[in-house]
């Protein structure tokens, strides 16, 4: 199915700011050159801009890339995106859900899945 993100084995959040003008090729270059990872792996890569009100997700399917783009409306607020620019983090599906719900993924009191 086109754009089935549940097919991803891993979810990686690229911390810091990403230029939201970048297209698939530019985001793949970040994954390869900066993160030293393979953009064609069965992973979902998340990128966020400086305003924190929009993000992009890149997913490889068997025949090509899918780029998802979401922008919140003005009254919806901002995403709580980690800003350590030299970091890429592997997220759980729970943390992914928190992130897209506007909840900080750094939940010190939350029960971590083992």
TrEMBL record:
InterPro entries: Transposase_IS66_Orf2 (IPR008878)
Pfam families: TnpB_IS66
Top-level taxon in the UniProt lineage: Bacteria
Protein name per UniProt: Transposase
Species for this entry: Butyrivibrio hungatei DSM 14810
């Amino acid at each position: 199915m086109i754009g089935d993100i549940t097919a991803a084995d891993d979810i990686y959040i690229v911390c810091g700011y990403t230029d939201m003008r970048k297209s698939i090729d530019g985001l793949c270059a970040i994954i390869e050159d900066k993160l030293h990872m393979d953009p064609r792996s069965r992973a979902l890569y998340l990128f966020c801009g400086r305003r924190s009100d929009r993000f992009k997700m890149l997913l490889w399917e068997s025949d090509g890339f899918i780029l998802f783009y979401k922008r919140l409306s003005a009254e919806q607020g901002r995403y709580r995106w980690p800003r350590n620019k030299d970091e890429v983090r592997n997220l759980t599906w729970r943390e992914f859900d928190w992130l897209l719900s506007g909840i900080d993924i750094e939940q010190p009191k939350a029960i971590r899945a083992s």
